[in-house]
Amino acid sequence: QWIYLNGQYVTKENAKISVYDHGFLYGDGIFEGIRIYSGNIFKLKEHLNRLYDSAKSIMLQIPLSLEQMQEALVETVRRNGLRDGYIRLVVSRGPGNLGLDPLRCPEAFVIIIVEELSIYPEEAYENGLVSVSVSQRRNVPDALNPKIKSLNYLNNVLVKIQANNAGVGEAIMLNSQGYVAEGSSDNIFIVKNGVVYTPPCYVGALEGITRGAIMELCGKLGLPLKEEPFTLHDVYVADEAFFTGTAAEVIAVREVDGRTIGSGKAGPITTRLLQEFRQIVTVDGVQ
Ligand code: PLP
């Protein structure tokens, strides 16, 4: 396995960063998770746009142009010889001194890791996940603006811990007003009376690339879609619910906080969207 470490390709054992890296010391940096399907990097442009937007927002100068970054990603995938997998792209503020001032870090540091990935068994896509709502709140819009995919993931880690404690794969986070925001690393959708709903990002959700792809698919398939805030009550009484994310793809939710959602397995619209999604992933990408 070859890892891109700031311009060099090194083995996993040799892929090391400085203890003075501000990504490590302060969570000062940004990242992307990207899928490779049949040798294609899925939605690469969208991921790179989000990365460079996150960088601009936190005043982080990425040392590679967008084209150079694309080349580095393609080359790292090529060297690892993976047809299907996952790319973790990290840009940290880079090594500096102690003290959180980014001016102490002369240059950002770029890491690209390519790995195999499987998070849920196929059975989960048919039967759906059990989920719970958690007490962590996705606050908007503060320094941890959900639109910035920053290395500050402690809030999400705490959501994952609550999910683990409840014995479930993904949990639901509300915002401070009590509206449903997203999961620990997935966006959320519900379906009611044939209409697909997802919270607008201002409620406190990352503008997920998979979310965007599903919204596009709804348009193509003629499924009515509404981006509007909803509460846990709406999730409990929904006909269908599902999470979307780069790693999870489109995964049905069969139970939330002890309430069975719809039929208690992946509903027809969720199943259709997953099938259509799996059709587009192999064609919509950069080789
Ligand atoms: N929400 C959060 C907090 C995430 O970290 C992710 C993962 O990237 C998502 C949602 C899903 O976004 P995407 O579909 O771009 O992977």
Output the keywords.
single chain, 287 residues, alpha+beta, nine-stranded mixed β-sheet, seven-stranded antiparallel β-sheet, 8 helices, 16 strands, 29% strand, binds pyridoxal-5'-phosphate
Q: Given the C-alpha coordinates, what overall shape results?
A: globular
Bin the helical content. Answer: 25-40%
Q: Taking Cα atoms only, what radius of gyration do you get, to the nearest Å?
A: 19 Å
Q: Figure out the total of helices.
A: 8
Task: Determine the mean pLDDT.
Answer: 95
Hetero groups in this structure are: pyridoxal-5'-phosphate
Would you identify the regions where 5 or more consecutive residues have pLDDT less than 50?
none
Total beta strand runs: 16
How far apart the termini lie comes to 19 Å
Q: How much strand content do the residues show?
A: 25-35%
User: What structural class do you assign from the helix and strand content?
Assistant: alpha+beta
H-E order: EEHEEHHEEHEHEEEEHEHEEEHE
Sheet with the most strands, sense and barrel status: 9 strands, mixed
Pfam families: Aminotran_4 (PF01063)
Protein name: Branched-chain-amino-acid aminotransferase
GO molecular function, one term: branched-chain-amino-acid transaminase activity
Organism: Paenibacillus thailandensis
